Amino acid sequence: MDVIVIDTPQLGDRSYLVHDGTTGLLVDAQRDIDRVEAAAEQAGVRITHVAETHIHNDYLTGGLAYARKHGATYLVNAADDVSFERTPVSDGETLQVGGLTVKAVATPGHTHHHLSFVVVHDGEQAVFSGGSVLYGSVGRTDLLGREHMVGLTHDQYASARRLAEEAAEEAALYPTHGFGSFCSSGPATGADESTLGEQMRTNHVYTDGDEEHFVSELIANLTAYPNYYVHMMPGNTEGPAEPDLSVPDSLDAQELTSRLAEGEWVVDLRHRVAYSSNHLKGTISFEYGDGSSFTAFLGWIFPYDRKLTLVGSREDVENAVRDLSRIGIDSPDAALGEDPEQLAPGAPVSSYPRVDWQGMLAERPEGETVLDVRRTDEYEDSHIPGAVNIPLHELLTRLDEVPAGRLWIHCGSGYRSGTAASLLEREGHDVVHVDALFAEAEQAGVPLES
């Protein structure tokens, strides 16, 4: 048995191709299935079965599109109400995929109808746990509504124990979430691999023997998750098509200028340093290439009923088109290039100051507002005395709460504050981007309080 990991760090998720050398099972496919096709071709295997552990909340699946395109059997829980033809599978069902024996195990918690798959080949076991047991944590239990949260958290506790009964401790564990995905109930551990036994010894879902304590602690530590999640489950229930990943023709200068003047969503993909020094007025800064930040944070605040235009190099636009397709933002327009004056000659350009912590301490007059755009839980843990906290994902709905006067804007790394600075400059505010790691603020002499 061989397991090929198809990693999507932009969303903190993994898909898996498990095979016996000739025949394969695809688990939790991302929407851009060309990566799966390439992996199967390179391995010399035919994928005959595609399985979903659950109806996903943080990305659109490629499972249905792959199954239809390649004539594979599509395994989805019989209890899930979906709008497409699939092969229903239920708890305890076992099927053969070439030389692989695949057993479906009900592991509710992340969703009501969540399944894990225990795969056996020549005595070797692998567990594909989806959003159930992760590396160091479990999938979050609040995505279906707070009215279901307590019950699902109890389910998650019981499901971890069910998995421990269904597979051996030496079984390799392959979760879908937990590599930076907001579907995890805890921070990523950084682990690249693990076994079920290792998790039984270290994961709090196993080590916390008091179920009520586990439930209360998990719920207390759940943080905000991206707004785009609301679109994912309905999209996956309908059945997403394969996306168009082609790079669009570049808009001409007149059309780009018109979109800026009309206040449309025009996103500049360049590095935040380049953006702050010179950009087309009215654009929004979403630096591409910063791990998972781009997709998650753009999807978090982008209004899905608006048209999106990407501005940047052909390579960045091409990659962004792929990333955004995974969360259902399809076929954005683009203006290809990185020089604002050449992209739209005559259109207004702008800039704003960018400083580090030392720069803020030296240059900020007393009384000017420090705006902290981190999540509320981050702010409550530690913050600059007197700082105003409006999380980036709430900024557009709370613009009336933004103080007047110059704003010194920071976050945890500089990424979110760069986006916030661009949004607030677009709204007419005088901004300074504090581009620095919050973890280094105190060392730089910035006073903090909890």
UniProtKB/TrEMBL annotation:
Keyword check for Phosphoprotein: no
Pfam families for this protein: Lactamase_B, Rhodanese
Domain of life: Bacteria
GO biological process, any: hydrogen sulfide metabolic process
Residues in Rhodanese domain copies: 364-450
Record InterPro entries: Metallo-B-lactamas, Mito_Persulfide_Diox, POD-like_MBL-fold, Rhodanese-like_dom, Rhodanese-like_dom_sf, RibonucZ/Hydroxyglut_hydro, Thiosulphate_STrfase_CS
Protein name: MBL fold metallo-hydrolase
GO molecular function, one term: hydrolase activity
Stored Gene3D superfamilies: Rhodanese-like domain, Ribonuclease Z/Hydroxyacylglutathione hydrolase-like
Keywords: Hydrolase, Metal-binding
Keyword check for Metal-binding: yes
